[in-house]
Amino acid sequence: MVDLARKNLLHDKLRFLITVSGVAFAVTLVFVQVGLFTGLLDNATITIEHLDADLWVTSKNTANIDFAQTFPETAVQRVRSVPGVLRADNLIVWFMTMALPTGAKEGTLVYALEDFGRWGLPWRVTAGNLQDLRRGRYFFLDESAKKRFGPFAVGDYRELIGRRLKIIGKSRDALSFSTTPVSFMDYRLAQELSPDELRGNTTYVLIKLQPEADVEKVRREVQRRVPYNDVFTRQEWADRSRRYWVESTGLGLNLAMTVFLGCLVGVVVVAQTLYTSTMEHLKEFGTVKAIGGSNRDIYKILVQQAAISAVVGYLLGGGMAWLLRPAMASIDLKLIISPAFAATVAVGTVVMCLASAMISFRKVAKIDPALVFRT
Amino acid sequence: MNVLEASDVTKEFKEGRETVAVLKGASLALERGEVVALEGPSGSGKTTFLSILGCILTPTGGRVVVDGETIDPRRPGRLPEIRKRSIGFVFQQFNLFPALTARENVEYALNVKGRQGREARREAEQALAAVGLADRLDFLPRDLSGGQKQRVAIARALAGGPPIVLADEPTANLDSQVGGQVLEMFRDLAKRENRALLIVTHDPKVRAIADRVLQIHDGRVAA
Known about the structure:
The complex is a heterodimer.
Chain A: H1 4-11, H2 13-50, E1 55-59, E2 71-72, H3 75-80, E3 85-99, E4 105-113, H4 116-119, E5 125-127, E6 138-142, H5 146-149, E7 157-160, E8 163-171, E9 182-186, H6 187-193, H7 195-198, E10 201-202, E11 204-209, H8 215-225, E12 229-233, H9 234-248, H10 251-280, H11 282-290, H12 295-330, H13 339-365
Parallel strand pairs in A: 4-9, 6-8
Antiparallel strand pairs in A: 1-11, 1-12, 2-10, 3-4, 3-7, 3-11, 5-8, 6-9, 7-8
Chain B: E1 2-15, E2 18-31, E3 35-39, H1 46-53, E4 61-66, E5 69-70, H2 79-86, E6 87-90, H3 102-112, H4 117-130, H5 146-158, E7 164-168, H6 176-192, E8 196-201, H7 204-209, E9 212-217, E10 220-222
Parallel strand pairs in B: 3-8, 3-9, 6-7, 7-8
Antiparallel strand pairs in B: 1-2, 1-4, 4-5, 9-10
Protein backbone atom coordinates (compact mmCIF):
# COMPACT_ATOMS: atom_id res chain seq x y z
CA MET A 1 0.00 0.00 0.00
CA VAL A 2 1.39 3.39 -0.95
CA ASP A 3 1.83 5.34 2.25
CA LEU A 4 0.33 8.66 1.14
CA ALA A 5 0.00 9.89 4.74
CA ARG A 6 3.67 9.46 5.60
CA LYS A 7 4.93 10.71 2.24
CA ASN A 8 2.74 13.80 2.36
CA LEU A 9 3.83 14.50 5.92
CA LEU A 10 7.53 14.19 5.15
CA HIS A 11 7.25 15.95 1.81
CA ASP A 12 7.15 19.31 3.58
CA LYS A 13 10.02 18.83 5.99
CA LEU A 14 9.86 22.27 7.57
CA ARG A 15 6.20 21.87 8.44
CA PHE A 16 6.88 18.42 9.82
CA LEU A 17 9.69 19.82 11.94
CA ILE A 18 7.38 22.50 13.33
CA THR A 19 4.71 19.92 14.13
CA VAL A 20 7.03 17.51 15.94
CA SER A 21 8.72 20.42 17.71
CA GLY A 22 5.35 21.43 19.14
CA VAL A 23 4.73 17.89 20.32
CA ALA A 24 8.28 17.53 21.64
CA PHE A 25 7.98 20.79 23.55
CA ALA A 26 4.79 19.65 25.24
CA VAL A 27 6.25 16.23 26.02
CA THR A 28 9.46 17.69 27.45
CA LEU A 29 7.49 20.15 29.56
CA VAL A 30 5.29 17.41 30.97
CA PHE A 31 8.23 15.09 31.61
CA VAL A 32 10.33 17.76 33.30
CA GLN A 33 7.54 19.28 35.38
CA VAL A 34 6.03 16.02 36.53
CA GLY A 35 9.44 14.32 36.77
CA LEU A 36 10.81 17.07 39.03
CA PHE A 37 7.68 17.09 41.13
CA THR A 38 7.83 13.31 41.44
CA GLY A 39 11.44 13.70 42.45
CA LEU A 40 10.47 16.17 45.16
CA LEU A 41 7.65 13.92 46.34
CA ASP A 42 10.12 11.06 46.39
CA ASN A 43 12.29 13.17 48.70
CA ALA A 44 9.25 13.85 50.87
CA THR A 45 8.82 10.17 51.66
CA ILE A 46 12.28 8.76 51.08
CA THR A 47 12.92 8.23 54.78
CA ILE A 48 9.52 6.55 55.24
CA GLU A 49 10.31 4.22 52.36
CA HIS A 50 13.74 3.31 53.74
CA LEU A 51 12.95 3.04 57.42
CA ASP A 52 12.30 -0.59 58.28
CA ALA A 53 8.98 0.15 60.03
CA ASP A 54 5.64 -1.51 59.19
CA LEU A 55 3.50 0.86 61.26
CA TRP A 56 3.93 4.46 62.33
CA VAL A 57 2.35 6.06 65.38
CA THR A 58 2.04 9.81 64.92
CA SER A 59 0.43 12.58 66.91
CA LYS A 60 -3.16 13.23 65.89
CA ASN A 61 -3.59 14.69 62.39
CA THR A 62 0.07 15.10 61.61
CA ALA A 63 0.14 16.18 57.98
CA ASN A 64 3.50 14.84 56.87
CA ILE A 65 6.73 13.50 58.27
CA ASP A 66 8.57 16.83 58.24
CA PHE A 67 5.91 18.63 60.31
CA ALA A 68 6.12 16.42 63.36
CA GLN A 69 4.22 17.10 66.60
CA THR A 70 5.21 15.82 69.99
CA PHE A 71 3.46 13.35 72.29
CA PRO A 72 4.62 11.52 75.43
CA GLU A 73 7.37 9.06 74.72
CA THR A 74 5.86 6.55 77.11
CA ALA A 75 3.38 5.60 74.40
CA VAL A 76 6.06 3.29 73.07
CA GLN A 77 5.69 1.09 76.16
CA ARG A 78 2.01 0.51 75.41
CA VAL A 79 2.84 -0.31 71.81
CA ARG A 80 5.60 -2.78 72.63
CA SER A 81 3.23 -4.97 74.59
CA VAL A 82 0.80 -5.44 71.67
CA PRO A 83 0.83 -9.03 70.36
CA GLY A 84 2.43 -9.19 66.93
CA VAL A 85 4.84 -6.29 67.54
CA LEU A 86 8.43 -7.41 67.11
CA ARG A 87 9.95 -4.14 68.22
CA ALA A 88 8.96 -0.49 68.67
CA ASP A 89 11.13 2.60 69.17
CA ASN A 90 10.69 6.32 69.44
CA LEU A 91 11.77 8.50 66.56
CA ILE A 92 12.20 12.24 66.78
CA VAL A 93 12.02 14.31 63.60
CA TRP A 94 12.66 17.94 64.46
CA PHE A 95 13.77 21.17 62.86
CA MET A 96 16.84 22.67 64.52
CA THR A 97 18.84 25.75 63.70
CA MET A 98 22.47 25.33 62.73
CA ALA A 99 25.01 28.15 62.86
CA LEU A 100 27.32 27.99 59.88
CA PRO A 101 31.01 29.04 59.80
CA THR A 102 29.91 32.04 57.74
CA GLY A 103 27.80 33.29 60.62
CA ALA A 104 24.59 32.51 58.78
CA LYS A 105 21.97 30.27 60.29
CA GLU A 106 20.14 27.51 58.46
CA GLY A 107 17.61 24.90 59.43
CA THR A 108 18.33 21.19 59.49
CA LEU A 109 15.83 18.38 59.81
CA VAL A 110 17.09 16.13 62.57
CA TYR A 111 16.24 12.43 62.74
CA ALA A 112 16.95 11.06 66.18
CA LEU A 113 16.85 7.39 67.22
CA GLU A 114 18.42 5.32 69.97
CA ASP A 115 19.56 2.66 67.52
CA PHE A 116 19.86 3.72 63.90
CA GLY A 117 21.24 0.41 62.67
CA ARG A 118 18.14 -1.43 63.82
CA TRP A 119 15.87 0.67 61.59
CA GLY A 120 18.14 0.96 58.58
CA LEU A 121 18.53 4.73 58.84
CA PRO A 122 20.44 6.31 57.16
CA TRP A 123 20.56 3.70 54.43
CA ARG A 124 23.68 5.00 52.69
CA VAL A 125 26.50 5.88 55.07
CA THR A 126 29.51 7.29 53.24
CA ALA A 127 31.67 8.10 56.26
CA GLY A 128 31.67 7.31 60.00
CA ASN A 129 30.11 4.71 62.24
CA LEU A 130 26.48 5.08 63.34
CA GLN A 131 27.22 3.33 66.66
CA ASP A 132 29.41 6.27 67.64
CA LEU A 133 26.42 8.62 67.72
CA ARG A 134 25.60 7.39 71.23
CA ARG A 135 29.02 8.27 72.55
CA GLY A 136 28.81 12.05 72.78
CA ARG A 137 27.69 15.29 71.16
CA TYR A 138 27.98 13.99 67.66
CA PHE A 139 25.89 13.96 64.53
CA PHE A 140 25.86 12.76 60.95
CA LEU A 141 25.09 15.17 58.14
CA ASP A 142 23.82 14.23 54.69
CA GLU A 143 26.13 15.15 51.82
CA SER A 144 23.33 17.09 50.14
CA ALA A 145 23.81 19.73 52.88
CA LYS A 146 26.92 20.92 51.09
CA LYS A 147 24.83 23.09 48.78
CA ARG A 148 23.09 24.93 51.64
CA PHE A 149 25.71 24.71 54.40
CA GLY A 150 28.87 24.91 52.34
CA PRO A 151 31.67 22.34 52.40
CA PHE A 152 32.07 20.26 55.55
CA ALA A 153 34.14 17.28 56.62
CA VAL A 154 34.07 14.60 59.27
CA GLY A 155 35.66 16.11 62.36
CA ASP A 156 34.24 19.60 61.77
CA TYR A 157 32.16 21.23 64.46
CA ARG A 158 28.84 22.98 63.99
CA GLU A 159 26.60 24.78 66.44
CA LEU A 160 23.05 23.44 66.78
CA ILE A 161 20.65 25.47 68.92
CA GLY A 162 23.63 27.06 70.63
CA ARG A 163 25.45 23.76 71.35
CA ARG A 164 28.68 22.73 69.69
CA LEU A 165 28.41 19.35 68.00
CA LYS A 166 30.95 17.35 66.04
CA ILE A 167 30.26 15.88 62.61
CA ILE A 168 31.33 12.24 62.82
CA GLY A 169 29.84 10.85 59.65
CA LYS A 170 28.09 11.48 56.38
CA SER A 171 25.13 9.93 54.59
CA ARG A 172 23.89 10.21 51.05
CA ASP A 173 20.40 10.48 49.52
CA ALA A 174 18.63 11.36 52.78
CA LEU A 175 16.55 14.30 51.55
CA SER A 176 13.45 16.24 52.43
CA PHE A 177 10.72 17.78 50.28
CA SER A 178 11.70 21.28 51.32
CA THR A 179 15.38 20.52 50.55
CA THR A 180 16.23 21.24 54.21
CA PRO A 181 19.41 19.20 54.88
CA VAL A 182 18.92 16.11 56.99
CA SER A 183 21.01 15.30 60.11
CA PHE A 184 21.10 12.22 62.33
CA MET A 185 21.80 12.24 66.05
CA ASP A 186 21.16 10.23 69.18
CA TYR A 187 17.63 10.36 70.54
CA ARG A 188 18.66 11.65 73.99
CA LEU A 189 20.91 14.31 72.50
CA ALA A 190 18.00 15.66 70.43
CA GLN A 191 15.87 15.88 73.60
CA GLU A 192 18.72 17.62 75.37
CA LEU A 193 19.14 20.18 72.60
CA SER A 194 15.47 21.11 72.59
CA PRO A 195 14.29 20.33 76.09
CA ASP A 196 11.24 22.56 76.16
CA GLU A 197 9.49 20.58 73.44
CA LEU A 198 11.24 17.25 73.44
CA ARG A 199 12.03 16.31 77.04
CA GLY A 200 9.89 13.27 77.78
CA ASN A 201 8.36 13.54 74.35
CA THR A 202 8.78 11.90 70.99
CA THR A 203 7.30 12.67 67.57
CA TYR A 204 6.80 9.15 66.18
CA VAL A 205 6.81 5.55 67.31
CA LEU A 206 8.18 3.11 64.76
CA ILE A 207 6.77 -0.42 64.84
CA LYS A 208 8.27 -3.52 63.28
CA LEU A 209 5.85 -6.44 63.15
CA GLN A 210 6.54 -10.11 63.61
CA PRO A 211 6.71 -11.86 60.23
CA GLU A 212 3.39 -13.70 60.64
CA ALA A 213 1.53 -10.79 62.24
CA ASP A 214 -1.75 -9.54 60.80
CA VAL A 215 -1.05 -5.88 60.03
CA GLU A 216 -4.66 -4.72 60.36
CA LYS A 217 -5.22 -6.59 63.59
CA VAL A 218 -2.08 -5.15 65.16
CA ARG A 219 -2.89 -1.70 63.90
CA ARG A 220 -6.37 -1.85 65.48
CA GLU A 221 -4.94 -2.95 68.78
CA VAL A 222 -2.22 -0.28 68.75
CA GLN A 223 -4.84 2.35 67.92
CA ARG A 224 -6.97 1.10 70.83
CA ARG A 225 -4.04 1.52 73.19
CA VAL A 226 -2.99 4.98 71.94
CA PRO A 227 -6.38 6.51 71.15
CA TYR A 228 -5.06 10.08 71.02
CA ASN A 229 -2.63 9.23 68.25
CA ASP A 230 -2.91 8.09 64.62
CA VAL A 231 -1.55 4.77 63.41
CA PHE A 232 -0.59 4.36 59.76
CA THR A 233 0.93 1.62 57.68
CA ARG A 234 4.08 2.63 55.87
CA GLN A 235 2.21 3.05 52.58
CA GLU A 236 -0.58 5.10 54.15
CA TRP A 237 1.90 7.36 55.87
CA ALA A 238 3.89 7.89 52.68
CA ASP A 239 0.70 8.60 50.73
CA ARG A 240 -0.47 11.04 53.40
CA SER A 241 2.85 12.89 53.38
CA ARG A 242 2.80 13.14 49.60
CA ARG A 243 -0.83 14.18 49.52
CA TYR A 244 -0.10 17.05 51.87
CA TRP A 245 2.39 18.57 49.46
CA VAL A 246 0.21 17.95 46.44
CA GLU A 247 -3.12 19.13 47.84
CA SER A 248 -2.48 21.50 50.70
CA THR A 249 0.24 23.67 49.25
CA GLY A 250 -1.19 24.42 45.82
CA LEU A 251 1.79 22.73 44.24
CA GLY A 252 -0.45 20.03 42.78
CA LEU A 253 -2.69 22.63 41.18
CA ASN A 254 0.34 24.52 39.97
CA LEU A 255 1.70 21.36 38.40
CA ALA A 256 -1.65 20.48 36.86
CA MET A 257 -1.84 23.95 35.32
CA THR A 258 1.67 23.66 33.89
CA VAL A 259 0.94 20.23 32.45
CA PHE A 260 -2.37 21.48 31.06
CA LEU A 261 -0.72 24.50 29.45
CA GLY A 262 2.04 22.31 28.04
CA CYS A 263 -0.54 19.99 26.53
CA LEU A 264 -2.54 22.96 25.27
CA VAL A 265 0.52 24.34 23.48
CA GLY A 266 1.10 20.91 21.98
CA VAL A 267 -2.52 20.57 20.87
CA VAL A 268 -2.60 24.06 19.39
CA VAL A 269 0.65 23.60 17.47
CA VAL A 270 -0.28 20.16 16.16
CA ALA A 271 -3.87 21.15 15.40
CA GLN A 272 -2.76 24.29 13.61
CA THR A 273 -0.10 22.61 11.48
CA LEU A 274 -2.33 19.64 10.67
CA TYR A 275 -5.21 21.95 9.80
CA THR A 276 -3.04 24.17 7.62
CA SER A 277 -1.62 21.10 5.97
CA THR A 278 -5.14 19.75 5.41
CA MET A 279 -6.22 23.04 3.86
CA GLU A 280 -3.22 23.05 1.56
CA HIS A 281 -3.88 19.46 0.55
CA LEU A 282 -7.61 19.92 0.14
CA LYS A 283 -7.47 19.36 -3.59
CA GLU A 284 -5.46 16.18 -3.05
CA PHE A 285 -8.08 14.94 -0.62
CA GLY A 286 -10.70 15.86 -3.21
CA THR A 287 -8.74 13.75 -5.70
CA VAL A 288 -8.72 10.85 -3.24
CA LYS A 289 -12.49 11.12 -3.13
CA ALA A 290 -12.74 11.44 -6.93
CA ILE A 291 -10.78 8.23 -7.48
CA GLY A 292 -13.15 6.38 -5.18
CA GLY A 293 -11.80 7.10 -1.71
CA SER A 294 -14.24 7.77 1.10
CA ASN A 295 -14.09 10.18 4.03
CA ARG A 296 -12.84 7.23 6.03
CA ASP A 297 -9.82 6.85 3.73
CA ILE A 298 -8.96 10.50 4.33
CA TYR A 299 -9.53 10.22 8.08
CA LYS A 300 -7.07 7.34 8.06
CA ILE A 301 -4.50 9.58 6.38
CA LEU A 302 -5.01 12.30 8.99
CA VAL A 303 -4.92 9.84 11.87
CA GLN A 304 -1.74 8.29 10.56
CA GLN A 305 -0.12 11.70 10.17
CA ALA A 306 -1.16 12.66 13.70
CA ALA A 307 0.17 9.35 15.03
CA ILE A 308 3.52 9.79 13.24
CA SER A 309 3.80 13.32 14.63
CA ALA A 310 2.96 11.96 18.08
CA VAL A 311 5.54 9.17 18.00
CA VAL A 312 8.36 11.29 16.59
CA GLY A 313 7.50 14.21 18.90
CA TYR A 314 7.32 11.88 21.89
CA LEU A 315 10.69 10.33 21.15
CA LEU A 316 12.28 13.75 20.68
CA GLY A 317 10.64 15.21 23.78
CA GLY A 318 11.37 12.13 25.88
CA GLY A 319 14.95 12.15 24.68
CA MET A 320 15.37 15.80 25.60
CA ALA A 321 13.92 15.21 29.07
CA TRP A 322 16.21 12.23 29.54
CA LEU A 323 19.23 14.28 28.53
CA LEU A 324 18.24 16.94 31.07
CA ARG A 325 18.53 14.46 33.95
CA PRO A 326 22.29 14.92 34.54
CA ALA A 327 21.89 18.71 34.44
CA MET A 328 19.11 18.50 37.02
CA ALA A 329 21.12 16.11 39.15
CA SER A 330 24.01 18.58 39.19
CA ILE A 331 21.76 21.06 41.01
CA ASP A 332 20.45 18.35 43.35
CA LEU A 333 17.11 17.98 41.59
CA LYS A 334 15.80 14.54 40.85
CA LEU A 335 13.97 14.06 37.56
CA ILE A 336 12.08 10.81 37.98
CA ILE A 337 10.61 9.24 34.84
CA SER A 338 9.13 5.89 35.72
CA PRO A 339 8.19 3.40 32.97
CA ALA A 340 4.52 3.76 33.93
CA PHE A 341 4.73 7.56 33.68
CA ALA A 342 6.58 7.33 30.35
CA ALA A 343 3.86 5.02 29.04
CA THR A 344 1.13 7.38 30.28
CA VAL A 345 2.77 10.34 28.53
CA ALA A 346 3.12 8.25 25.36
CA VAL A 347 -0.60 7.44 25.36
CA GLY A 348 -1.41 11.05 26.25
CA THR A 349 0.72 12.31 23.36
CA VAL A 350 -1.06 10.08 20.85
CA VAL A 351 -4.46 11.11 22.25
CA MET A 352 -3.39 14.77 22.11
CA CYS A 353 -2.35 14.49 18.46
CA LEU A 354 -5.45 12.54 17.48
CA ALA A 355 -7.62 15.15 19.19
CA SER A 356 -5.78 17.78 17.16
CA ALA A 357 -6.57 15.90 13.96
CA MET A 358 -10.29 16.01 14.77
CA ILE A 359 -10.45 19.65 13.72
CA SER A 360 -9.23 18.64 10.29
CA PHE A 361 -11.79 15.81 10.18
CA ARG A 362 -14.60 18.35 10.09
CA LYS A 363 -13.04 20.14 7.16
CA VAL A 364 -12.40 16.96 5.24
CA ALA A 365 -15.93 15.68 5.79
CA LYS A 366 -17.23 18.76 4.00
CA ILE A 367 -14.91 18.55 1.00
CA ASP A 368 -16.85 18.86 -2.22
CA PRO A 369 -15.22 16.36 -4.59
CA ALA A 370 -16.21 18.67 -7.44
CA LEU A 371 -13.40 20.99 -6.35
CA VAL A 372 -11.07 18.72 -8.33
CA PHE A 373 -12.48 20.31 -11.48
CA ARG A 374 -11.72 23.83 -10.31
CA THR A 375 -8.61 25.54 -11.55
CA MET B 1 -24.95 -1.49 -24.97
CA ASN B 2 -24.63 1.81 -23.16
CA VAL B 3 -22.18 1.89 -20.31
CA LEU B 4 -23.16 5.42 -19.31
CA GLU B 5 -26.60 6.88 -19.71
CA ALA B 6 -28.14 10.16 -18.58
CA SER B 7 -31.78 11.09 -19.31
CA ASP B 8 -33.33 14.48 -18.66
CA VAL B 9 -30.87 15.30 -15.94
CA THR B 10 -31.52 18.49 -14.02
CA LYS B 11 -29.38 20.13 -11.38
CA GLU B 12 -30.29 23.09 -9.24
CA PHE B 13 -28.15 24.97 -6.76
CA LYS B 14 -29.29 27.30 -4.03
CA GLU B 15 -27.65 30.71 -4.14
CA GLY B 16 -28.95 32.65 -1.20
CA ARG B 17 -32.73 32.77 -1.61
CA GLU B 18 -32.56 31.97 -5.28
CA THR B 19 -32.48 28.60 -6.96
CA VAL B 20 -30.26 28.44 -10.03
CA ALA B 21 -30.93 25.71 -12.57
CA VAL B 22 -27.61 24.72 -14.15
CA LEU B 23 -28.82 21.63 -16.01
CA LYS B 24 -32.28 21.68 -17.55
CA GLY B 25 -32.77 18.22 -18.94
CA ALA B 26 -29.40 17.08 -20.24
CA SER B 27 -29.23 13.65 -21.85
CA LEU B 28 -26.37 11.55 -23.12
CA ALA B 29 -25.46 7.94 -23.80
CA LEU B 30 -22.00 6.38 -24.20
CA GLU B 31 -21.03 2.92 -25.37
CA ARG B 32 -17.84 1.05 -24.60
CA GLY B 33 -15.04 1.94 -26.98
CA GLU B 34 -16.66 5.23 -27.90
CA VAL B 35 -14.87 8.58 -27.70
CA VAL B 36 -17.20 11.56 -27.27
CA ALA B 37 -16.36 15.24 -26.99
CA LEU B 38 -18.63 17.53 -25.01
CA GLU B 39 -18.25 21.18 -25.94
CA GLY B 40 -19.88 24.25 -24.59
CA PRO B 41 -19.21 27.82 -23.53
CA SER B 42 -18.29 28.76 -19.98
CA GLY B 43 -21.29 28.53 -17.66
CA SER B 44 -23.13 26.12 -19.93
CA GLY B 45 -23.11 23.42 -17.23
CA LYS B 46 -20.55 21.03 -18.71
CA THR B 47 -18.48 20.60 -15.55
CA THR B 48 -21.64 20.09 -13.49
CA PHE B 49 -22.81 17.51 -16.00
CA LEU B 50 -19.42 15.81 -15.85
CA SER B 51 -19.60 15.76 -12.05
CA ILE B 52 -22.99 14.08 -12.15
CA LEU B 53 -21.89 11.55 -14.77
CA GLY B 54 -18.82 10.87 -12.64
CA CYS B 55 -20.93 10.31 -9.50
CA ILE B 56 -19.34 13.27 -7.75
CA LEU B 57 -22.62 15.17 -7.60
CA THR B 58 -26.13 13.80 -7.50
CA PRO B 59 -28.75 15.12 -9.94
CA THR B 60 -31.80 17.05 -8.77
CA GLY B 61 -33.90 15.22 -11.32
CA GLY B 62 -33.66 12.77 -14.19
CA ARG B 63 -31.97 9.42 -14.40
CA VAL B 64 -28.32 8.39 -14.54
CA VAL B 65 -27.17 4.82 -15.10
CA VAL B 66 -23.49 4.06 -14.64
CA ASP B 67 -22.18 0.67 -15.70
CA GLY B 68 -25.60 -0.87 -15.17
CA GLU B 69 -26.33 0.78 -11.82
CA THR B 70 -28.95 3.49 -11.52
CA ILE B 71 -27.80 6.37 -9.35
CA ASP B 72 -30.05 6.96 -6.38
CA PRO B 73 -29.68 10.58 -5.16
CA ARG B 74 -31.04 9.49 -1.78
CA ARG B 75 -28.03 7.23 -1.29
CA PRO B 76 -24.98 9.47 -1.78
CA GLY B 77 -22.93 7.03 0.32
CA ARG B 78 -23.05 4.61 -2.61
CA LEU B 79 -21.29 7.04 -4.98
CA PRO B 80 -17.66 6.43 -3.87
CA GLU B 81 -18.13 2.71 -4.51
CA ILE B 82 -19.42 3.38 -8.06
CA ARG B 83 -16.56 5.83 -8.74
CA LYS B 84 -14.08 3.29 -7.48
CA ARG B 85 -15.46 0.50 -9.62
CA SER B 86 -16.49 2.18 -12.86
CA ILE B 87 -14.97 5.62 -13.39
CA GLY B 88 -11.56 7.06 -14.10
CA PHE B 89 -10.92 10.81 -14.06
CA VAL B 90 -8.44 13.01 -15.88
CA PHE B 91 -8.30 16.60 -14.68
CA GLN B 92 -7.22 19.83 -16.29
CA GLN B 93 -4.73 20.46 -13.46
CA PHE B 94 -3.53 16.82 -13.49
CA ASN B 95 -4.17 16.60 -9.71
CA LEU B 96 -1.25 14.30 -9.06
CA PHE B 97 -0.06 13.80 -5.48
CA PRO B 98 3.15 15.85 -5.34
CA ALA B 99 4.74 13.67 -2.66
CA LEU B 100 4.32 10.47 -4.68
CA THR B 101 6.33 9.31 -7.66
CA ALA B 102 4.66 8.58 -10.98
CA ARG B 103 4.43 4.90 -10.10
CA GLU B 104 3.09 5.62 -6.62
CA ASN B 105 0.45 7.99 -7.98
CA VAL B 106 -0.97 5.21 -10.12
CA GLU B 107 -0.40 2.55 -7.48
CA TYR B 108 -2.23 4.59 -4.84
CA ALA B 109 -5.30 4.85 -7.08
CA LEU B 110 -5.16 1.08 -7.48
CA ASN B 111 -4.86 0.69 -3.70
CA VAL B 112 -8.02 2.75 -3.26
CA LYS B 113 -9.71 0.44 -5.76
CA GLY B 114 -8.72 -2.53 -3.62
CA ARG B 115 -5.63 -3.80 -5.37
CA GLN B 116 -2.64 -4.20 -3.09
CA GLY B 117 1.00 -5.19 -3.02
CA ARG B 118 2.94 -6.49 -5.99
CA GLU B 119 -0.16 -6.84 -8.13
CA ALA B 120 -0.87 -3.11 -7.80
CA ARG B 121 2.76 -2.22 -8.36
CA ARG B 122 3.01 -4.32 -11.51
CA GLU B 123 -0.26 -2.95 -12.84
CA ALA B 124 0.90 0.61 -12.17
CA GLU B 125 4.12 -0.01 -14.07
CA GLN B 126 2.20 -1.50 -16.98
CA ALA B 127 -0.18 1.47 -17.07
CA LEU B 128 2.74 3.90 -17.09
CA ALA B 129 4.52 1.87 -19.78
CA ALA B 130 1.36 2.07 -21.87
CA VAL B 131 1.52 5.87 -21.79
CA GLY B 132 5.23 5.85 -22.61
CA LEU B 133 6.58 6.60 -19.15
CA ALA B 134 8.37 3.35 -18.35
CA ASP B 135 11.55 5.35 -17.81
CA ARG B 136 9.92 7.89 -15.49
CA LEU B 137 8.47 5.56 -12.86
CA ASP B 138 10.34 7.03 -9.91
CA PHE B 139 10.05 10.68 -10.89
CA LEU B 140 8.11 13.04 -8.66
CA PRO B 141 5.51 15.21 -10.45
CA ARG B 142 7.71 18.29 -10.00
CA ASP B 143 10.36 16.58 -12.17
CA LEU B 144 7.94 15.82 -15.01
CA SER B 145 6.84 18.05 -17.88
CA GLY B 146 3.19 19.04 -18.29
CA GLY B 147 2.63 16.40 -20.97
CA GLN B 148 4.26 13.73 -18.82
CA LYS B 149 2.14 14.71 -15.84
CA GLN B 150 -1.01 14.40 -17.93
CA ARG B 151 0.14 11.00 -19.15
CA VAL B 152 0.59 9.89 -15.52
CA ALA B 153 -2.93 11.17 -14.85
CA ILE B 154 -4.22 9.17 -17.84
CA ALA B 155 -2.41 6.07 -16.63
CA ARG B 156 -4.00 6.60 -13.21
CA ALA B 157 -7.46 6.99 -14.75
CA LEU B 158 -7.12 3.85 -16.84
CA ALA B 159 -5.50 1.72 -14.11
CA GLY B 160 -7.85 -0.74 -12.54
CA GLY B 161 -9.89 -1.05 -15.74
CA PRO B 162 -12.85 1.32 -15.21
CA PRO B 163 -15.20 1.09 -18.19
CA ILE B 164 -15.76 4.87 -18.20
CA VAL B 165 -13.11 7.58 -18.34
CA LEU B 166 -14.13 11.21 -17.91
CA ALA B 167 -11.70 13.95 -18.82
CA ASP B 168 -12.09 17.61 -17.98
CA GLU B 169 -10.15 19.86 -20.37
CA PRO B 170 -7.19 17.45 -20.46
CA THR B 171 -5.20 19.59 -22.88
CA ALA B 172 -5.88 23.01 -21.39
CA ASN B 173 -2.50 23.17 -19.66
CA LEU B 174 -0.48 21.65 -22.50
CA ASP B 175 1.00 23.26 -25.57
CA SER B 176 -0.63 22.49 -28.88
CA GLN B 177 1.81 19.82 -30.06
CA VAL B 178 1.98 17.95 -26.75
CA GLY B 179 -1.78 18.28 -26.34
CA GLY B 180 -2.29 16.63 -29.73
CA GLN B 181 0.05 13.77 -28.86
CA VAL B 182 -1.65 13.19 -25.51
CA LEU B 183 -5.10 13.14 -27.12
CA GLU B 184 -3.99 10.64 -29.79
CA MET B 185 -2.54 8.37 -27.16
CA PHE B 186 -5.58 8.77 -24.93
CA ARG B 187 -7.93 7.85 -27.76
CA ASP B 188 -5.84 4.85 -28.81
CA LEU B 189 -5.71 3.48 -25.29
CA ALA B 190 -9.46 3.95 -24.78
CA LYS B 191 -10.22 2.21 -28.06
CA ARG B 192 -7.74 -0.61 -27.48
CA GLU B 193 -9.06 -1.27 -23.98
CA ASN B 194 -12.70 -0.76 -24.97
CA ARG B 195 -13.39 2.12 -22.57
CA ALA B 196 -15.99 4.81 -23.02
CA LEU B 197 -14.20 8.16 -23.07
CA LEU B 198 -15.99 11.46 -22.54
CA ILE B 199 -13.87 14.59 -22.95
CA VAL B 200 -15.20 17.94 -21.85
CA THR B 201 -13.28 20.56 -23.78
CA HIS B 202 -12.89 23.85 -25.54
CA ASP B 203 -10.00 22.48 -27.58
CA PRO B 204 -10.82 22.06 -31.30
CA LYS B 205 -8.21 19.27 -31.55
CA VAL B 206 -10.51 17.02 -29.55
CA ARG B 207 -13.02 17.11 -32.40
CA ALA B 208 -10.45 15.40 -34.58
CA ILE B 209 -10.11 12.35 -32.33
CA ALA B 210 -13.74 12.09 -31.19
CA ASP B 211 -16.31 9.71 -32.67
CA ARG B 212 -19.05 12.14 -31.77
CA VAL B 213 -19.20 15.74 -30.69
CA LEU B 214 -21.97 16.96 -28.40
CA GLN B 215 -22.75 20.54 -27.57
CA ILE B 216 -24.08 21.71 -24.24
CA HIS B 217 -25.88 25.04 -24.14
CA ASP B 218 -27.80 26.51 -21.29
CA GLY B 219 -27.99 23.18 -19.48
CA ARG B 220 -29.14 21.11 -22.42
CA VAL B 221 -27.17 18.73 -24.64
CA ALA B 222 -27.49 18.69 -28.40
CA ALA B 223 -25.75 16.45 -30.93
